[in-house]
Amino acid sequence: MSGAKAKDPRFPDFSFTVLEGARATRVPGGRTIEEIEPEYKVRGRTTFSALFRYDPFDFWVGPFYVGFWGFVSVLGIIFGSAFYLYYTVFLGPFSYPQNFFAGRIDPPPAEVGLALVGPGQPGFAWQMTVFFATIAFFGWMMRQVDISMKLDMGYHIAVAYGVVFSSWLTLQIIRPIALGQWHEGFVLGVMPHLDWVSNFGYRYNNFFYNPFHAIGITGLFGSTWLLACHGSLILSAAQYRGPEGGDIENVFFRDIQYYSIGESGIHRLGFIFACGGVLSANLCILLSGWPVQDWVSFWNFWNTLPWWSGV
Amino acid sequence: MATMNPTPGDLELGPRDRGRVGRAQELPILENFGLDSQLGPYYIGFWNSAAFVTGGLFTFIWLAVMASQVGWNPLAFAKYFFVLQIDPPAAAYGLSFPPLDQGGWWLISTFFLTVSIFCWYMHLYTRAKALGIKPYLAYGFTGAIILYLVIYIIRPMWMANWSEAPSHGLKALLDWTNNVSVRYGNFYYNPFHMLSIFFLLGSTVLLAMHAGTIWALEKYAAHEEWNELQAPGTGTERAQLFWRWCMGFNANAYSIHLWAFWFAWLCGVTGAIGVFLSMPDFVNNWFQWGVEAGINYPELPPVQP
After folding, report:
1. Which domains does chain B have, with CATH numbers?
2. What is the pTM of this model?
3. In chain A, which among 288-307 make CB contacts under 8 A with chain B?
């Protein structure tokens, strides 16, 4: 089992050690949430407590933790949802259920460039919705940092959320700024955003030839595959009571494919796969229309490489 | 969960099931990255061997036919590796067996690939049975198998035409995916494609959530999941409280893997349904289908501001 065997002293150690006594906290059958929660509900230990020795929102509402960033995030959610629903569903051209699918908020027209548009002008609803959604997403990420601090965990969940937040930033903020117009952002709406993605793929000739798209898709399919392998493996071994104990998963994978990456390893690999796929997807969007206009002729470099000019 | 004490081991492995090859090798640098350092021993059984032989035959035919297409020139083979392909029989042949260079090699290689996949399923299934665990890995594999069978075997046979199947080749597979979407009126309007994408992205989210949670809690030994299933400790408690405090509800160490299994499995199965329905007999144009179903409004005036 990983974490127990000898490491190679010639190389840096990116591993971990299990805290003294952590395994001794195990209770057969587990404890109920009512037994657990009071032990962990302590005040302080948030970003605001660390910076200012005080967090005005350091409390829970039902199961939810609030915190300063929860307050920020809720503001973004309320205002962002209000703008979105008002312009797509309430002001949409059809009945409310139809507007749920058909309603759309278009980005500002191209001539606006990177200017901010005022109320009543085309693109105002888009800019406001994107602005408040960005606040909501950032606040949610920082709230995950707060909860991780409170529970004395690593910050991996907030980092993973930050990766998917970076997709939103790339699509709606970074790429439009790189191309000099908010018009490049994607249309908000259920079916309209699908149309936007479809059109975007063929606008640069064919996205299937975009190598970073291919790497991103590989990351997503790889993540689904790893999730299936890991989920099914744990389910399959849950009722195992044989002599191998918790090592049965490793034995099974060594038997079927020579190597088992181990209990901590599969989670590290999965984290890297999921985040890496999304980061590559960011790149495939950012490069489209900025340095690369055509992903088919992009591959001309391959055919003109000097070492096979003769064939 | 039942008990944290394993019952006395009476795992019965027949002599053939114990037939592992190779001694366990240790590669300590892997431990520096939190990965398991033990390689092997490896189990060689009938189904594993059969999967490798048939899979090897598929790979050999695939590579050899592609190499013959460039006159066995290794440099040309490397240059054109991405675009070389073995095409299935032309539509005129229907389901009959054509000459080898006009689709015969495709049929033979696809046969071996299919046999290899079934042998691998049996390898996963029989090995789990032999070790005394549930064969859920094999069951999860059925999600991928169904998608493969629909694309390469079932849908072409239903349409009585092997040419509906993808060619064997890297660019060819991308082209087939692109073309089947365009031919049937854009897969973005295909509800089963929507579901498949939902489960694909959902699986990536679930993996990032679960893997991030466990990686963040390694120092509490939350990664020792078999032990935590029997007797949850402080690592699992923190994992549960994180998601309860973050989004209002949480899975537990067992049920997160149920979520994982079904999200990943349904990605393949819903995708298979979406591909199978895309034929003239059923849905010829998903764009039109979306209009009739009331989710697609091509004449929609833009809402401003």
Report:
1. 45-178 (1.20.85.10), 184-294 (1.20.85.10)
2. 0.95
3. 302-303, 305, 307
